[in-house]
Please model this.
Amino acid sequence: MAEKFVSMRNLRFLLYEIFDVESLTRYPYFQDHSREIFEMVLDTGEKMGRDLLHPYFAEMDRNPPEFVDGKVKVLPMVRTLMKECGEGGWIGAHASYERGGQQMPTLVLNAFRFIFCAANYSASVYPFLTGGAAQLIESFGSEDLIETYVPRMFSGEWQGTMALTEPQAGSSLTDLATTAEPTDAGYYKIKGQKIFISAADHDGVDNVVNLLLARIKGAPPGVKGISMFVVPQKRIGENGKLEGNDLLTTGIYHKLGYRGSPITQLSLGENDDCRGWLVGEPNKGLRYMFQLMNEARIDVGMSAAAIASAAYYASLQYTQERPQGRPVTSKDPTQPQVPIIEHADVKRMLLFQRAVVEGSMSLIFQCARYVDLSHVLDGEEKERCELLLDLLTPIAKSYPAEMGSLAVSAGLQCLGGYGYCDEFPLEQHYRDMRIHPIHEGTTGIQGMDLLGRKVVMKGGKAFMLYLQELEKTIEAARALEPLKPHADDLQRATETLKDVTGRLTGIAAEGKIDLFLADATLYLELFGIIAIAWQWLVQAVAARKALDTDSIEAERNFYTGKLYTCRYFFAYELPKIEGLARRLKACDGLTVEMKEAFFED
Amino acid sequence: MAEKFVSMRNLRFLLYEIFDVESLTRYPYFQDHSREIFEMVLDTGEKMGRDLLHPYFAEMDRNPPEFVDGKVKVLPMVRTLMKECGEGGWIGAHASYERGGQQMPTLVLNAFRFIFCAANYSASVYPFLTGGAAQLIESFGSEDLIETYVPRMFSGEWQGTMALTEPQAGSSLTDLATTAEPTDAGYYKIKGQKIFISAADHDGVDNVVNLLLARIKGAPPGVKGISMFVVPQKRIGENGKLEGNDLLTTGIYHKLGYRGSPITQLSLGENDDCRGWLVGEPNKGLRYMFQLMNEARIDVGMSAAAIASAAYYASLQYTQERPQGRPVTSKDPTQPQVPIIEHADVKRMLLFQRAVVEGSMSLIFQCARYVDLSHVLDGEEKERCELLLDLLTPIAKSYPAEMGSLAVSAGLQCLGGYGYCDEFPLEQHYRDMRIHPIHEGTTGIQGMDLLGRKVVMKGGKAFMLYLQELEKTIEAARALEPLKPHADDLQRATETLKDVTGRLTGIAAEGKIDLFLADATLYLELFGIIAIAWQWLVQAVAARKALDTDSIEAERNFYTGKLYTCRYFFAYELPKIEGLARRLKACDGLTVEMKEAFFED
Model:
């Protein structure tokens, strides 16, 4: 089993050298924090990841949750994990002091979570999903709901979930049909089916708190009639004890990967006695959910980058230890073989992985910085952070998910036949990773979100702000002689992005919405490559400057590696936008015209 | 479970309308054949695929071979399959009449095998690997070896294998270390270890015949000292009965996919009594093996295309049946949902799959035609076919393997969360497929083979012949008005290929072999995209002409679908060469310079 799954050095590079998390402590909200505290978080994360999560990486895959007598059984480590995360304050660390949290910057929490996800993705889901669900109740729930649920979720006693999907409404939330009927007692009677709900039943906790979308009887059709409810698996009875809430688990899914976490099917209100409590106002459920959903999307990107990180270090180690073949310039069979990391094509596959992993991480930490700043700034500055976050969310979700899948595949390839066998972790990473382009909005949905909503919102304001960010980075890079070619490349890429965006929004302006959105997934891909190039240039500027002053060899190697990986990205990945731009600008309606009958043979 | 896994219409299109298999019957070797016979082959293949192989697709995955008491146990269906394939003459159908075969054209056999692979890839391996191994003995073995082994392999009683890989020599065959010591009795004593050997032990047959590479004591180092041996699992004793041959199975691998077929570890000669019989002359083993290896590589491409075919039809069916969402131009939530095949992005994913599947198939059938012609032609014409086959083999192996992996992933994506669950076949196809970029020479190895060997061999003769083939197709397309833009695109792509090839061979001419080969994998990718564009244009020419005369609606839909898929390929796939060409021409040695130390954080 490979030992290393994350680079702590790289996390510190991102936190301190790129996104300057220490500067946040200037703001009153974060003023109690300091580098020492952040270091303690990182050290604890590393220790828990290594000792508590990583040892169960393969075991949780090979002993997935079982559905026995209508209940889901998981490994005992889940209870241990929830308890330790609760006791350590990690589930509610994001929350304000008054809510029992630690007002911890998202940047630092992201680093902590990244370690967990890289150590054991399935395990990481239990505590962090709970934290996210609790945050929804904190933000929009009544004091009563908050008092009842949040402390027991923060303590890890109760699991939180997001319950959106229904059999007839996968990506189409507008078609949610679960109903909520008001009663005089203040609660609603819930009736319906939910599918693909993560962790909505397991014996690692004493209760499950579903944040569930349903339609109050008489509500308007579509997304305007969706409300949010707290629907606990067990409700608190009159005697204060937990009692059943007419919420049945009807099955769990057998999945390609991500097997350590149970994904459940739920049936609500079969006996007309499933109670739900409204969160916030009626018919605003989707808006509330999207607070969590947007975070969940960035979490997906982070998890994807984390799995790709673990795969990268496993393949790096293998390529350093495995002798095979000789340099192409000296094929003498009597000479010893060389470790395969000496072959250019293997280095290319490693650089590809690193470029995806660390480029994705940088973008995700960029988003976390916007989250943190939007908490402490106001007015224009706050809006700027929020708009940039909104714009970049579909990229932060989909680039790591899509490219991370390819990165893990490259890691598997580095191991040859062994990559295909379960003696090594790569095959599991390959399976685990594949969920990420699907859940919390498929890649296709992200493309529509980016082009159809984010790029055009507020008259393109977010997009203009983003172009300014690119410009700042290009200027900073241009000031450093060795980075000038990259600055020029990103400048040209920015022009391409503007060009393509102008062409597409022009088509939208003509009212041809189907044509406008037909290749939204390709637009997402183009946009994503440029965003990661931007983040690589941000990193290269810092690495280049550090190299001028740092004389410790390990540090110099780290920064030099950053510069090589940046060069890799600009040489091998950025040119992919050329073919994409050509296709996007053609915009000839091929996929709109194609008819179902032509797929028949 | 999806029912359709292959389009028989498309197989007939390739056989009769594109590669004109009937024309082969003009040659004496194939003169007994006719369209009626070919149809019988297709019908039998379809029936066996549907009734014998496909029903075990999931079962073989869920009940993989077990290693019990040193022996490998497989499902009883394997014995049934081998027996039926033997009795039907399908294992030896390629062979000449005098060897007990049917002199069946490779084109037709490929169609037959394609059906098997699409129905159940793991199952298909048992008979076809046996046929390939038998063919090696036929081609290079003594009459005695042929008589002893070939009939029992053709009958399906004995399994054949290729035993190359060793623990210290994966991709580096030069480092094979298994030894063969001559004895006075005519046989050699074999000693060594082999790993990753497909089907080298199972209870679906009575014996296993390994075609094994080893080094005769005193042989020169490297590939020049490798010989080929027949090393049976059980040898024929003096009484004519089978007896042990000191060949132990030491384990089987637990794999990501392709689980229905046992991949074994072998230990030979632990008691100094493992006997092998030399095939052909000493030290020519690698050359012999490459006859089979080249076929095996094309078979990998075919298997990959076949798995992608099954995935395509499964996802096509799902998208036709699954209602979800509404057209982007009419989002009224009170209107019913539409099947997801009506969404442009879903059609794009389906077109991508079809473009990869049918483009790959066309290239593989093109190769099969070269095989068939090289049997019946001689002189210049024969050499032409052989050179084109040599040149295209790494493409026929790697394009379907690499792009097929992405195609299956797109199929899985069409199903959303269900694609990730084992109720549907997509997740298994995704796992099964991933072996193909690895076995029979990784994609990296194929890139080195293409650029370092095939493109430059005989002064670039094969490459020049290939350019002539492209030119012929471009001319044919240009004669049809609607295909002119595609003809122009392929013309430009050809210029790009020449340009890149010239740049790289120029670097080779300067003696910079490491630079020349550093991006061979990208060159393979570029070359592959253009080769598939060529094959799509070949198909489009035929479809376009057929549309002018055919009036049956189903037929018109089929041809129209071909033209749309060709358009898809030229619009979405071919432009990818632009970024690749830019990178290949830069050729700045980035991956050559990159040092191991820079990967350390």
About this structure: Chain A is about 55% helix and 10% strand. The CA atoms of residues 10 and 115 of chain A lie 12 Å apart. Residues 450-588 of chain A form one domain.
